[in-house]
Structures are given as structure tokens and as C-alpha cells.
Design a protein that fits this description.
244 residues; mainly alpha; two-stranded antiparallel sheet; elongated
């Protein structure tokens, strides 16, 4: 029984501790909301506690810096967009500091002041045209001249007609050519003649041996027929007849 009596207080203590821990977490969640409400009261002038005014002043200084950075980002984005469309950034002076502010920017990038939006500029009116009767300028679109009452309608400029590219005449139809006679059948090439054997050149005959000198018979005496051995003899040695 004593153990059961001691266990009940311990169980209750554990429950209460868990509840306290949960409440602490819920309280921590409420601090940011409390701080925002206090800062909002400071901005609206409803905060009178000097101890809370000093940290709120620091928060406002941080807000001003963040607004300046945001304004610079917006200005750079506007300039980037204008560069894309090919327009030069035409700035307007800031009403507070005079710095140039690009069109469409809500806050000045120099001081953070809000810039009033610019009213769109009206489109320039078209130039007046002279009356064809009296020469008085007439507003474009008016049907009659306000000075002489003549009609001021100008003839509409001729609408340029699209140029028609001259098409080249179609090529003449090719005349049907008479069918050419079929080519003669190709003759089969003659078989190449067999090369004839070239007779080998016969060896030249050996030179003939020199002919032996023919011995001539000695002259004879015309009178007696005796051979004359001496070539320069003038008389025959046998009969004494004259030889030459």
C-alpha cells in the first residue's frame, strides 16, 4: 500500500513537468508576435516605454537599409528591362534628394523615399494639313475646312500594288525527234595475228683466202718462138730477131 501511495505523486509530478515544458514552447512561439506588435505600436507612435523605444529605433534603421537595397534592385531590374527593348533609361528626379529614378520605380535608390507614379504622356497630335481651297490648317480627320467650308478630305494615297514577278515563259516543248536508226552491230575484233618467226641472221661467210698469184708465161720471140726471160731484152738471144 505504501508503494502505491508513493507512486501516485511521482506520476503526477511527471505529468506536470511535461505540461510545463509544453507551455514553455508555446510561450517561445509568442515572442515574435509580441515583438512585431510592439514594433508596430512604435511606428504608429503608441509606444511610450523608453526601454522598448531604443530597440525599435534599431529595427527601423534596419528597415530603411533594406528598403534602399530593395529600391536599387528594382531600379536595376527596370534598367535591364529597358536595355532588352533597346530604350535608354530616361530617369526622373526624386522629390526628396533629386537623384535620378527610372520610370516605373516606386522608391528612390538613393534615399529610399517613395516616388509618385508618373502619369502616362499623351501621344503627340498628328500635324495639321492645309485646306486645298484656302490653305488654312485643318485638323486631320475633319471633313470640312473651318475657314471656307470647303471639303478638306484628302485623297487617300494610292495603295501600292504588289509587284508581280514576271514569270519566264515555259521552255518550248521538245519536238519529237525521228527515231535514229539503230547503230550497226559492232564487229568482233579480229584475233591478233600470231607473230611470225623472224629468221635468224645467218653468220657471214668466212673471208675467201687470197688468190694465189697467177704465174704468167714469159714472152716468146715472134720469129723463132724462143721464150724471152729478160724483160728488157731488145733482141732474141736465139735468132737475133728484133723484139720491140
Amino acid at each position: 500500500m505504501a508503494n502505491e501511495a508513493g507512486a501516485k505523486p511521482q506520476k503526477e509530478m511527471n505529468r506536470l513537468k511535461a505540461q510545463m515544458k509544453h507551455l514553455e514552447k508555446e510561450k517561445e512561439k509568442q515572442f515574435p508576435n509580441l515583438g512585431r506588435a510592439t514594433y508596430q505600436a512604435f511606428l504608429e507612435g503608441r509606444l511610450t516605454d523608453a526601454g522598448l523605444i531604443e530597440p525599435c529605433e534599431k529595427l527601423r534603421a534596419l528597415d530603411n537599409e533594406a528598403n534602399q537595397a530593395r529600391a536599387q534592385v528594382d531600379e536595376l531590374q527596370a534598367q535591364s528591362q529597358q536595355m532588352k527593348v533597346g530604350l535608354a533609361p530616361a530617369g526622373v528626379p526624386c522629390p526628396s534628394c533629386g537623384a535620378s529614378v527610372a520610370p516605373g520605380i516606386r522608391f528612390c535608390g538613393n534615399c529610399g523615399s517613395q516616388v509618385a507614379p508618373q502619369a502616362p504622356q499623351p501621344a503627340p497630335a498628328p500635324p495639321a494639313v492645309p485646306c486645298p481651297a484656302c490653305g488654312t490648317p485643318v485638323v486631320p480627320g475633319a471633313r470640312f475646312c473651318g475657314e471656307c467650308g470647303a471639303t478638306s478630305e484628302q485623297p487617300a494615297p494610292p495603295t501600292p500594288q504588289p509587284q508581280v514577278m514576271a514569270q519566264a515563259p515555259p521552255p518550248p516543248q521538245a519536238q519529237a525527234a525521228t527515231p535514229a536508226p539503230p547503230p550497226p552491230p559492232l564487229e568482233e575484233p579480229a584475233a591478233p595475228a600470231e607473230p611470225q618467226a623472224v629468221p635468224e641472221a645467218s653468220a657471214p661467210p668466212p673471208p675467201a683466202p687470197p688468190a694465189a698469184p697467177v704465174s704468167q708465161a714469159p714472152p716468146r720471140c715472134p720469129s723463132c718462138g724462143t721464150p724471152i726471160d729478160e724483160e728488157d731484152a731488145a733482141f732474141c738471144g736465139e735468132c737475133g730477131a728484133r723484139l720491140k
